[in-house]
Amino acid sequence: MFDSKSKIVDFHCVFFFFSGCVIPGGGAFELVAHQALNQYKEQVKGRARLGVQAFAEALLIIPKAIAQNAGHDQQETIVKLQQEYAGSKIPVGIDITTGEAMEPKSLGIFDNYRVKKQLIHSSTSIATNLTLVDEILRAGLSSLRPGGQ
Predict the structure, then answer these.
(1) What pLDDT was estimated at residue 19?
(2) CATH classification for the domain delimited by 2-112, as one of 3.30.70.890, 1.10.560.10, 2.60.40.1180, 3.30.420.40
(3) Helix, strand or coil for residue 111?
């Protein structure tokens, strides 16, 4: 019985891999997206540039959390990953046993594309709504002051 279950899991992994529904895991996607957004930021003008930078930095929360949960220094691990990716241009994730860069694809570590896409969309929507609520609260507080400003 166990054998047939493992074959079903293997089939699903192969299906997802060949259908393009998985992306390298272990923080690799977030690292690559961070680098791409930093390059894109150079083309953006004005206040929007700060938003792109903030979004890029927020993406690094996932690999930092992986490093911290594995007992490694967050900043040191991120720097190692960024240096490895800059040199090879191959998506690299965190090896939780050593804290070093590893190639997730070769170790079979993948994230589901649809889940990752939905996560980014939801996070962006929530952040936008929180910003809107903050602006509404500020406008309400300023109307309570004498003179309405």
Answers:
(1) 52
(2) 1.10.560.10
(3) strand
